[in-house]
Each structure stands twice: as C-alpha cells, then as structure tokens.
Amino acid sequence: MKLLFASDLHGSAYYTQKLLARMDAEAPDKTILLGDLLYHGPRNDLPREYDPKRVTALLNSRKNEVLAVRGNCDAEVDQMVLEFPIMADYMALFLEGRMIFVTHGHLFHEENLPNFGKGDMLIHGHTHLREAADRGAYFFLNPGSLALPKGDGIHSYAVYEDGIFTTKDADGAPLETLDIRRNG
Q1: What backbone torsions phi and psi does residue 26 show, to the nearest 5 degrees?
Q2: Exposed, middle or buried, 152 (CB in 10 Å: 0-12/13-18/19+)?
Q3: How many CB atoms lie within 10 A of CB 59?
Q4: Nearest 10 degrees: CA dihedral of 87, 55, 72, 173?
Q5: How far is it, in rounded angstroms, from Cα 114 to Cα 121?
Q6: What DSSP element (H or E) covers 95?
Q7: How far apart are CA 83 and CA 40, in angstroms?
Q8: Are the C-beta atoms of 73 and 35 separated by less than 8 Å?
Q9: Rounded CA gap, 40 and 139, in Å?
Q10: Within its chain, how far is the Cα of 180 from the centroid?
Q11: At what angle do helices 52-60 and 13-26 cross, to 10 degrees?
C-alpha cells in the first residue's frame, strides 16, 4: 500500500495544483489530508494564489482519492462545498502491525498523546514544521505544510510505502525517512 500525506494547504491553489501533480507522479492508493484545507486562518499570511473556491474545485476533482481529517481552520461551511468528508478529528490506520493515529494536531499532539500502545505512531500537521522521528515509545511524523512551511521553509509532504515514511519537497525530492518496521 502506498499513501501520500499532505497538510495545511490553507486555500493555496498553487500548492494544491502541486499536490495534484505529486499525486499523479506518486500514484498513491489514497491521499490523506491532515486539515486546514481552504481557509488561511487569522495567524497566517495569505498563501501563494489564495483561492479557496479553486482549491475546492481541485480537491473535489479527486474526491475518490482522498481521505481527510478536520483542521482548526476547517468548518462546517467548508464541508458544505467539499464532496468528501473532512469533519472527523482523527482516523486510525493499521500499518506494519501498528496503529497509526492520524489527526490535524490542534487537539492531539506530542504534549497530548492519544491512547495508543508502545510502537504505535502519531501523524499530524498543524505546526507547519516537518519532522519524522522514532521517539522510542512511539513514532512521530509531521509532513510539514505544502503552502505555508515554517522552520526551514521547505514546502513538503510525506509518502508511506513498504514500512517507510519519506518526507519530500514539493517537487518530490526526498528529504528524510522514517522506517517503522522495527520490533516493539
């Protein structure tokens, strides 16, 4: 199974088009969006080519390829225009015998961990800071933000395949990897 994870598009038509291009190039089984899809939020600058209506049309064109969780900037009015569910606060995946807890990051995060077991994984966006880490007790992944990255400023997403998560820049160049196949 191959999965693509992207977060924090914040209404950027430019980076949503980049996302669709990466979906074409990567050919994942599903793309998982980690929230903050249409609105830029009061603490963010407007992203490049801010156009929530265009982002809506672009994402709806791929509605059968996408799963999503709700971000803190996502609202019921967004769900009214998007043709795939976005209002769940989290989802659970099971990969490599591990529970993968997927959320936006404003409710559950490393300071407020969900209930999971040793060796499980937390994936969230929200901070716009890319990170892939083995914390010993659990694995952690934040794919960063395609539209409004913080930290090193690299626009990024992540791909899962064969037990390995790889963060990549917006053009698909690998940045770092996280292998979750270890025991325990």
Answers
A1: -80, -30
A2: exposed
A3: 25
A4: 110
A5: 10
A6: strand 90-95
A7: 20
A8: yes
A9: 29
A10: 18
A11: 20
Going by C-alpha positions, the residue among 95, 94, 106, 113 that lies closest to residue 70 is 106
Nearest to 62 by CA among 94, 90, 95, 27: 27
pLDDT digits (tens, 9 = 90+) for 4-49: 999 999 999 999 999 999 999 999 999 999 999 999 888 888 899 9
DSSP state of 39: -
The count of other CB atoms within 10 Å of the CB of residue 68 is 25
Query: How many CB atoms lie under 10 A from the CB of residue 117?
Result: 10
Cβ–Cβ under 8 Å, residues 176 and 129: no
DSSP SS3 for 150:
coil
Is this model's pTM higher than 0.85 or not? yes
> Alpha carbon of 52 to those of 10, 16, 19, 56: distances in Å?
8, 10, 15, 6
Backbone φ and ψ for 25, nearest 5 degrees, come out as -70, -40
Mean pLDDT of 107-113: 96
| C-alpha triplet 151, 162, 116: angle, nearest 5° | 65
CA distance 103 to 128: 14
pLDDT at 183: 64
Distance, in Å, from the CA atom of 130 to the CA atom of 13, rounded to the nearest integer, reads 21
